[in-house]
Design goal:
The complex is a heterodimer. By secondary structure, chain A is mainly alpha-helical. Chain A has one domain: Orthogonal Bundle (Cytochrome Bc1 Complex, Chain D, domain 2), CATH 1.10.760.10. Chain A is 34% helix and 7% strand. Chain A contains 5 helices and 5 strands; from the N terminus they run βββββααααα. The radius of gyration of chain A is 16 Å and the shape is globular. The two termini of chain A are 27 Å apart. Chain B is globular and about 45 Å long. Helix content of chain B is 5%, strand content 40%. Chain B has one domain: YVTN repeat-like/Quinoprotein amine dehydrogenase (Methylamine Dehydrogenase, Chain H, 7 Propeller), CATH 2.130.10.10. Chain B is mainly β. The two termini of chain B are 21 Å apart. In chain B, strands 1-5-4-3-2 form a 5-stranded antiparallel sheet, with no helix packed on it. In chain B, strands 6-7-8-9 form a 4-stranded antiparallel sheet, with no helix packed on it. The chains are: A mainly alpha, B mainly beta. The interface between A and B is medium-sized, with 28 and 28 residues.
């Protein structure tokens, strides 16, 4: 489906009837992908990828694969950073949850929960957080995107 | 080989009496004809359709009229039993020591169903409420495992719950068919520190609060339950009514507890101290309980209990 070699940096184009969008780095942005009700753009995904690399990849993995043995609790009692690809559970969460967890920390959604992940309020703007999550969502296959879109739609206030 | 318990009275007369009295009021009329002297503590039972399968000194199957059939033991004594209403005749049995067996004929024959499971004690079992081929097993000093093919293959899905600054053994599991807000339902666990739950996407163990995780967020800090289970007591059994999943029953040393709202608020319904519980899939008020010595049942949601058999 993708033809990244045909596109110059910064070019955004739709390919075929499924209208995938290709970013400057050759990333695909699935047609119809949204975050908190707003369409995800190629530029947003590109920015999100950069922010993810700088702020998230050290724990969640450059390949979004999470920490090793992420289902086993650390000696501290806290859980390792989970993957953001489909081997994890990020795609089970509504947009609003993902945004809130990223901005305020897991304890904002699960009161009292202790996590090694800080809230990124102050480190990232709201737009930056949205870009990171848009990037993560753009990597999911269609089945996971569809599932997560349904979870988001069912969540009051979601898109 | 199946052995049928001999009865002292006319089967027709006994069945007629039980049918007319609906079971509960028949306590005094139920002689200890199923009684067996001695034996180990009963710790497992499940409804298989309208029959009850229970382990005590031996593994037995009680039909709706109270007739008991002795079942062959699997490889080892049974510690936990589970069944799904949509798969009548299919039983899962966690065995003492380690291992898990499956029966497809109501417990008459058994085969191993623990491919990939570590050789560790299975402390609790549950069949997913909405997916009869999905089984959850809690392993001692390990965590939660899942099979999505009725026990043929297993994979690790979640560590044990972290409560009061330590990992806790899962003493009992229940798949509760209430929306988690994450596209699935909840798995509840009873521990020696009370009840906790995890969405079936396995993101994290969390306290039971009203609604789902996002509801708590929208409301701000969730209020503490007005009527929680007593703190510091082990939850030895926890079940959800298949036909009314918001209805939970829990067995604690302090007695038999009922929740009508998915475990947010609890009411102490009786002093019965059960080791295992099961809910009739067709009637959420019909509960069976195994104590250390007796098999009991209630047809009024746990307020009154009648003895079905000595175990």
């Amino acid at each position: 489906m993708t033809r990244p070699g045909l596109f110059a940096a910064g070019l955004v184009a739709a390919i075929g009837s499924t209208a995938w969008v290709v970013t400057a780095d050759g990333q695909d942005v699935p047609d119809g992908l949204s975050f908190l009700g707003a369409p995800v753009t190629a530029g947003q995904v590109a920015r999100g990828q950069e922010l993810y690399a700088a702020n998230c990849a050290s724990c969640h993995g450059a390949d979004l694969g999470g920490e090793p043995d992420w289902k086993r609790r650390k000696a501290s009692g806290r859980m390792p950073a989970p993957p953001h690809d489909t081997s994890g559970h990020t795609w089970h969460h509504a947009d609003r949850q993902l945004f809130t967890i990223t901005k305020l920390g897991v304890s904002a959604v699960v009161p009292g929960y202790e996590s090694d992940m800080p809230g990124f309020e102050g480190a990232l703007s709201d737009d930056g957080i949205a870009a990171v999550l848009a990037f993560i969502k753009s990597t999911w296959p269609e089945r996971a995107r569809g599932f997560q879109a349904e979870v988001t739609a069912n969540d009051e206030g979601g898109s | 080989m199946m052995n049928v318990y001999t009865e002292t009275g006319s089967p027709l007369g006994r069945r007629s009496v039980l049918f007319m009295l609906g079971g509960v009021a028949a306590t005094g009329l139920l002689p200890m004809r199923w009684a067996r002297a001695g034996g180990t503590s009963a710790s497992a039972l499940t409804f298989d359709g309208d029959a009850l399968v229970v382990t005590g000194a031996q593994l037995r199957r009680f039909d709706p009229f109270g007739d008991a059939t002795l079942l062959p033991e699997p490889r080892n004594p049974v510690r936990v039993l589970a069944c799904h209403p949509d798969r009548p005749g299919r039983l899962f049995a966690a065995l003492e020591g380690s291992g898990l067996d499956r029966s497809e004929d109501g417990g008459r024959t058994w085969a191993t169903a623990s491919g990939g499971l570590p050789r560790t004690q299975v402390t609790a079992l549950a069949v997913a409420a909405g997916a009869p081929d999905t089984i959850y097993a809690a392993l001692a000093e390990d965590g939660l495992w899942r099979s999505e093919d009725a026990g043929t293959n297993w994979s690790f899905v979640m560590d044990r719950p972290w409560l009061a600054e330590a990992e806790r053994e899962i003493l009992t599991l229940a798949s509760v068919n209430l929306a988690s807000g994450m596209g699935g339902i909840w798995i509840y666990a009873g521990t020696d520190q009370g009840v906790t739950r995890v969405p079936d996407c396995f993101c994290r163990w969390q306290d039971v609060v009203a609604g789902d995780a996002m509801d708590a967020l929208v409301a701000g800090t969730p209020s503490a339950p007005e009527a929680p289970l007593p703190k510091g007591e082990p939850v030895s059994a926890l079940v959800s009514a298949h036909s009314a999943p918001e209805r939970l029953y829990a067995a604690l040393p302090s007695g038999f507890w009922v929740s009508a709202n998915g475990g947010v608020a609890w009411e102490n319904r009786s002093s019965l101290h059960a080791q295992a519980l099961a809910v009739d899939p067709a009637d959420p008020d019909h509960i069976a309980a195994a104590t250390n010595t007796e098999l009991k049942h209630s047809r009024d949601g746990g307020t009154t209990w009648a003895t079905l058999a000595v175990l």
